[in-house]
Amino acid sequence: MNAFMNIHSVVRILVPTLAPMFAIATLVGCAGAPQHSQTYSHTHDVRLSAQVAPFSTLQLGEPLSISWQPWILSRFNRRTDYRVVEHGGVRVLRAHSDKAASGLLQDVVIDPITSPNLLWRWNVERLLPGANLTRRGSDDSPVRVIVSFEGDMDKLDVEDRAAAGMVKMFSGRDMPYATLMYVWDNQLPVDTLLDNAHSGRAKMIVVESGGLRTGQWLDFRRNVVDDFKRAFGEAPGRVISVGVMTDSNTTETETVAYYGDIILQRDR
Prior knowledge:
The protein has three helices and 13 strands; from the N terminus they run αββββββαββββαβββ. Helix 1 (5-28) packs across helix 2 (158-171). The chain has a seven-stranded mixed beta sheet with strand order 1-4-11-6-7-9-8. Strands 2, 3, 5, 10, 12 and 13 form a six-stranded antiparallel beta sheet that branches. The chain is α+β, with helices and mostly antiparallel strands.
């Protein structure tokens, strides 16, 4: 299931009604309300990490720590079970999805211009029959690595601003300015860039395709600056969160996947 599906489905119904109110609010403003920058911000707390916390240092069993937190897409979805296990002598994150959809997120503050290289590894036991990232209702992926960015929210159109308000209302989190999702698809060619069916602010990039390499540890390296420019036509702002998600609820299937450490690395 796509992370933006539930909210954007509602937005597409409500936007014709909400648009006049957003236009009025834009023109008139809120009397007495304090003025704030429209740049996305999660306060940039100085305690936020300048690097992604590795799974290999977490305790066996429970994956949650002060760094990694649950990402609940909808209270109506089952949650994917995440826990730290030993696999091949290394501690990694195990994700078990049985008709489930949820993720893990870590808030960070990382400058992608100086640390553009995203490195990670994953291992998928089996693909999801019927999964197709180009179609609503079957857009599951056994693995996703997710990177979100800050930016100027004033650039968003009315629909995306309405969606941002609903994200905040339903999840308690600000919607990122833009998000890249690195995914494994059943058949789309590697390096396919997919427009998200529910939000123009999230793009998917296929980094593995087909089932020939299931059951193996696969290593990946992507330049998030280049990928962001390709996806959104501009340079990225700071990275504000990194996440993982294994989801199989729309296909009503089951899968197990493993994630190794995720690193945003400087050019050498």
